[in-house]
Write a structure and sequence with these properties.
- The chain is 78% helix and 0% strand.
- It contains 13 helices and no strands.
- It is globular.
- Bound molecules: fe (ii) ion (FE2).
- Fe (ii) ion binds next to helix 3.
Length: 308
């Protein structure tokens, strides 16, 4: 933030990013209040966890995404920042009361079933907005920017976070569904793709954009870079499917048929084999990314001379 405020330009993008950072720090506090009662403790703990991932992080992500789209697509800042307002609005409207989806059946009032159900059903809208926003700006733009890897990661972030966080979150957020799926592999299915899209990919996007600028190395379309992108994304999609199939089977056997937890895990073992294969593919992709990061992470001699 000190760096942002040292700069001469105050933009909507930097304001949204700063807001996200301030709220992220402030929302750490409710988790530090001590309660002897488990329900009270859970009630306030979700102010931290939920409002972080489904509130302030969407601001941080929206801010970084807007920055990348301005730089990469060449579309006017004014146009992109108008979209950013819409996304911030949708995030607040749905995300704050959407906290209710963590209050199902934990000992708080029944009114949270209705509030949580309605507002979390609206939550995918913010992510849908982000995906449409990124694709629309790409189509509108001049497509002249040479950094193809940064473009892939940026558009990928918008699409994968919509599918993982938006759609798959919606898949088990209604109280009638969540009563059965809570704490099963269905949660893991949503969680893995959501975190990858909304947390992992946005970070790799900004690194892919800034690293060539900072080092003076034109890492725009390398083979290792392409492998990193495709292996990690195809790998995690496979993991999501494996988690999903295992999760649905688990819900049916454990919560409908009434089998024991351990017996069910044996029945769905085969899906974990698929999961490990896909996770290996994912990890290989990440190793490619780290390899390139370490290999080319230092500035070239010419780039160093320019800065001194
Ligand atoms: Fe949540």
């Amino acid at each position: 933030m000190a760096t942002l405020f040292k700069g001469k330009k105050r933009t909507t993008t930097s304001l949204v990013l700063s807001m996200g950072l301030v709220f992220a720090a402030l929302l750490y506090l409710p988790g530090m209040i001590w309660f002897d009662n488990q329900t009270m403790d859970s009630f306030f703990r979700w102010w931290v966890v939920h409002l972080w991932v489904e509130g302030v992080w969407e601001l941080i992500m929206g801010g970084i995404l807007a920055f990348l789209l301005i730089k990469i697509t060449g579309v006017d800042r004014e146009v992109i920042e108008k979209w950013l307002y819409v996304i911030v609005g949708l995030t607040f409207i749905s995300g704050i009361l959407g906290t209710g989806h963590h209050y199902y059946y934990i000992g708080v009032g029944k009114v949270w079933l209705i509030i949580g159900g309605i507002f979390s059903a609206l939550e995918p809208l913010a992510f849908l907005g982000m995906a449409l926003f990124a694709l629309a700006m790409y189509r509108k733009g001049e497509k002249k920017h040479p950094n193809k890897m940064a473009l892939n990661w940026t558009l990928g972030t918008a699409i994968v976070s919509f599918v993982g966080a938006g759609l798959l979150g919606m898949a088990h957020t209604l109280p009638q569904v969540n009563m059965y799926t809570h704490g099963t592999l269905v949660t893991a299915m949503h969680g893995h793709l959501a975190f990858w899209g909304a947390y992992g990919m946005i970070v790799l996007s900004i690194i892919s954009y800034t690293m060539p600028n900072m080092t003076g190395r034109k890492l725009y379309e390398t083979t290792t870079g392409a492998l990193a992108f495709w292996l990690s994304n195809i790998g995690i999609l496979g993991m999501t499917v494996a988690f999903g199939v295992a999760g649905v089977a688990q819900v049916y056997l454990e919560r409908k048929v009434g089998m024991d937890f351990g017996d069910v895990q044996k029945e769905i073992q085969v899906h974990f084999f698929v999961l490990i294969c896909c996770a290996t593919m994912f990890t290989t992709g990440i190793i490619c990314y780290i390899y390139e990061f370490i290999k080319y992470g230092r500035p070239t001699d010419e780039a160093l001379e320019l800065t001194t």
